[in-house]
Amino acid sequence: MSPALIAALPFIGALLPGLLIRSGRDVAAISCATATFIALLGLCLHIPAVMAGEVVTARFEWLPSLGLNANFRIDGLGLLFGILILGIGLLIIAYARHYLSRQDPAGVFYTYLMLFQGAMLGIVLSDNILLLLVFWELTSLSSFLLIGYWKHLPEGRQGARMALTVTGMGGLAMIAGMLILGNIAGSFDITDILQAREAIQASPYYLPALLLILLGAFTKSAQFPFHFWLPHAMAAPTPVSAYLHSATMVKAGLFLMARLWPVLSGTPEWFYIVATTGLATMVLAAWIAIFRDDLKSLLAFSTVSHLGLITMLLGFGTEAAAVAAVFHIVNHATFKAALFMTAGIIDHEAGTRSIARLGGLRRLMPITFVIGTLAALSMAGIPPLNGFLSKELMLEQATHAAWQGHPGLVAATATLGALFSVCYSLRFVWQVFLGPERQDYPHRPHDPGFGLWSAPALLAVLVVLIGLFPDSMAGWLVAASASAVTGTAQHPHLALWHGVTPALMLSAVALAGGVALLALNRRLLALRAAMAWPEAKAIFDAITRAVTCAAGFLTDRLTNGSMARAFAAFSLTVVLCGLWAFSTGGWQGATRPMLPIQPVPLVGWVLLMVATCCMVAFHRRRILALVLVGIIGLMVSVSFIYLSAPDLALTQISVEVVTVVLLLLALNFLPKFTVIESPDRKRGLDAFIATLTGLGFGALAYVIMRSDFAFSPISEYMLANSYKLGGGDNVVNVILVDFRGYDTFGEITVLGIAALTIFALTETLLAGATGRRLRNWVHDSRRAGDRHPLMLVVVTRLVLPIALVVGLYIFLRGHNMPGGGFVAGLVVSVALVSQYMASGFAWAQERQKINYHALIGAGVIAAGLTGIGAWFAGLPFLTSTYGYVKLPGLEEFELASAMGFDLGVFLCVVGAVMLALNSLSRIARTAGETVNLHPMDIDPSKEARR
Amino acid sequence: MELLLSSAIGMLTAAGVYLILRRRSFAVVLGMTMLSYAINLFLFSTGRLVVNAPPVLRDGAASYTDPLPQALVLTAIVISFGMTAVVVMMALGAFLEGGDDRVDMPRADRLPADSLSADRMSGDGDA
């Protein structure tokens, strides 16, 4: 089975509970188990190939330009983790079926579980670090959902949030680290990266990359000082704790360290960071675990401790230590998952997980007692169970390691960790199962049904079997994955008895010390209670609160409801960023000569400057300000003409007309004057900010205009190909309808949406209280005596056909001469608007039946259909074509398919402009504008007839 | 010539920013119009200034203007009309519904700065 399919199967399985929601929880569990089982089967089919040293791969290009490819590989390490994930996943699915109560939605649980399983499987089967990162983030998200599964419990929500914050931040750091790593290696494929050891370790970016990647791995694997989230994640249902927080997810960090072991390990940095962190975590967490009262909390800290142990082994950087690490991963997964499930059973049957309320369960729950004891003894490292074997290997490696030249230091500390481990493991057995029976359990405990104890029992059997026959049970898997970790073939000899070695002596010391410590337990508890320990959750909460406070403080100061304040902050930031960028950008000075200043443009410039100054000075007199806006717009249009941009000039001037009409219509209902509100100081400050921004922006424009292009502009391609590909001489128009037609398509759609928004706003206003207010509106300015003057009416009637013909002409010539759909649409709109102005909105509206909504829709559809037309010729969307046509009686002329697109632009512009003005006019009409029956108020012809 | 255009851009920007910093909606609309002019001219100027060059392909022409910024600015002009229209409509609607044409949130509705207590900060109140 293809590795990609194996990785996809859990995701497919995740859909099944949702689809089969009505069939009950048995079907949900069975369907998930089936998907998991098929994936496991598919994985196991690759065992012979992997054992032979092959790497099974599947490659799909996803975003090759970014180096992100959906490449999967199965090697020994992937196989080991895959079997763990799917095998324990299968057991968890069975266990959860019996664990979840009737009130818990099982479908949701299984969906989350399968999502997590898929994400985790994706991590271990990825052959591309970017793909791996995607799956990595997915595990953080799905574990968030699983930890918070009991949404009604505040501990669940807090624990989920804490886990997401810690692992998510680590994940972010890891993304950065992976990007650096990929850039050093020149590829993001793991296969290639594994070959680049020398280049990576010689790079000056080795240390930053290592630190960032380790940050991700340490947070995920709950290494000190990021260990605190794991115990809080224990608020999750026990199947989740057993699966995510003992067997799989917390091992993702270990997996990553093992995966990148060949390229990252072997340096002093690696040894001191990884091994030290692992050692510290191992001892510290084991010490804390001794005193936990909650069974799951005890197991959580012991998990942290064992994760530290494996991290330390990987940190040693020797091949033998890597073998021991891999072996302990297997052993820890078996005994710890069994222990978590045992804790779940006890919680389920006795009603509490508090050690203080338990004890004497030996006779009441004999099956659970056997399973729990076997697993706990394995955790303590008692022969002949599997935990003993890997602990021996660990101690042996520790005796070989020297920390800063002190050979005994690591071994002594590791033995101390093992000693604590013996203590809490035996405490688990002693204080839960042994001792006198009690009468005050919350429930009367008894062994659960087969469904609940079968899964941990199977694991307990494995614990014993691996312990007794390590070579035949697990040797092959350890060999294959250790070979994959180290990159060289490993043939470890796993055996129960190595003779009397230093490691055995240390083991004996740990065992004896652990028992002694347990005997002192009560005194230790008192001692610990007397000492003040920093509570990690309190620190975490304090940090989160401080950061949120700071963010809230800043946000509320910047956006306190005053638009001016937010805008001022924005302007100043932009100016400061620009200054900083300019001062570090290394501008070499002007390279382009300045164009000579001629007298006519100078006059235009003076006009523009004066108009702008007047506009600011007189902006309180709003109608005057509008007139000045008209002048400024006119000057801008003129400057476009002067600077060889006739298309822009045409567009600007026609937009100017409709904008001023629009503002005038609006001003009809707004106050005509603005009162002075701001104090002088505030206005001075605003003027200062405005001047600063203006200076910055002007200077930027000046610098750009006086510098040569940094790269050759892409418009050279457009100039060269405008006629060849687009069939048009007017390059601007060809860009609009062809080269960048997709942009234009988006833009006319936005324009149409803007017009429809205006229409919708008007509808809402007129329907509500505003409508009633408008109907009783009293105009604050005097009405004109002659609202529809004769001259205007006659002239606009004359102009209308001419304007329409001009619009048509501009539209048709647009492909080869200045013009096109935008300008034509605006010109026609202006012609129509002038009719409204001359004889009134209602009068004109009655005489034309075009629906502006339909016009906008037709425009967008016409443009879209033209684009789709290219598909029928087998070309990409919006590819245009052209040809020459000869009609009888006419000269030969060009027909381009882009014309259909331009027609769409034209229709959309007309529709949008007219709908916007139309909407404003409707407000005026509601406010008691009288509808005239005649085109003009004073009609001389009527007078003459009388 | 470059000096003239860049000073005009700077002047229009300053006028636009000053007007947007006012408190009444109409001034803000005017300011946005000013700022649109400034930005359109700025975008246009990134193609560098050319005087008297043919705007369309022509045999024997030595140089052309840069058509790409022109195409971008052309659509920008039309879109800025759409934006102005929506903002004007919103300003009008706010004035008709609310009775005044201030752009700022009324002081009474603003978040008092000193009420940022710990309960708002600790998420959804789990603590």
UniProtKB/TrEMBL annotation, chain A:
Protein location: Cell membrane; Membrane
Domain (Na+/H+ antiporter MnhB subunit-related protein) ranges: 792-914
GO MF term set: antiporter activity
InterPro entries, per database record: CPA3_Na-H_Antiporter_A (IPR050616), MnhB (IPR007182), MrpA_C/MbhD (IPR025383), MrpA_C/MbhE (IPR046806), ND/Mrp_TM (IPR001750), Proton_antipo_N (IPR001516)
Spans traversing the lipid bilayer: 6-21, 28-52, 72-95, 107-125, 162-185, 205-230, 242-264, 270-291, 367-389, 409-430, 450-469, 495-520, 563-582, 602-618, 623-643, 649-667, 687-705, 748-769, 790-812, 818-838, 850-875, 895-917
Residue ranges of every copy of the MrpA C-terminal/MbhE domain listed in the record: 682-762
Keywords in alphabetical order: Antiport, Cell membrane, Ion transport, Membrane, Transmembrane, Transmembrane helix, Transport
One Gene Ontology biological process: monoatomic ion transport
Primary subcellular site in the record, as a coarse category: membrane
Pfam families: MbhD (PF13244), MbhE (PF20501), MnhB (PF04039), Proton_antipo_M (PF00361), Proton_antipo_N (PF00662)
Topology of the protein relative to the lipid bilayer: Multi-pass membrane protein
NADH-Ubiquinone oxidoreductase (complex I) chain 5 N-terminal domain ranges (all copies): 65-105
Keyword check for Phosphoprotein: no
UniProt function note: NDH-1 shuttles electrons from NADH, via FMN and iron-sulfur (Fe-S) centers, to quinones in the respiratory chain. The immediate electron acceptor for the enzyme in this species is believed to be ubiquinone. Couples the redox reaction to proton translocation (for every two electrons transferred, four hydrogen ions are translocated across the cytoplasmic membrane), and thus conserves the redox energy in a proton gradient.
Name of the molecule in the record: Multisubunit potassium/proton antiporter PhaA subunit /multisubunit potassium/proton antiporter PhaB subunit
UniProtKB/TrEMBL annotation, chain B:
GO cellular component: plasma membrane
Main location: membrane
Biased composition (Basic and acidic residues): 99-112
InterPro entries reported in the protein's UniProt record: CPA3_antiporter_subunitC, NUOK/Mnh_C1-like
Location(s) in or outside the cell: Cell membrane
Membrane-protein topology: Multi-pass membrane protein
Matching Gene3D superfamilies: 1.10.287.3510
Transmembrane annotation, as ranges: 6-21, 28-51, 71-96
Keywords, comma-separated and alphabetical: Cell membrane, Membrane, Transmembrane, Transmembrane helix
Region listing for Disordered, in residue ranges: 99-127
Record NCBIfam families: PRK08600.1, PRK09094.1
Family: Belongs to the CPA3 antiporters (TC 2.A.63) subunit C family.
Name listed for the protein in its UniProt record: Multisubunit potassium/proton antiporter PhaC subunit
Organism of provenance: Paracoccus versutus
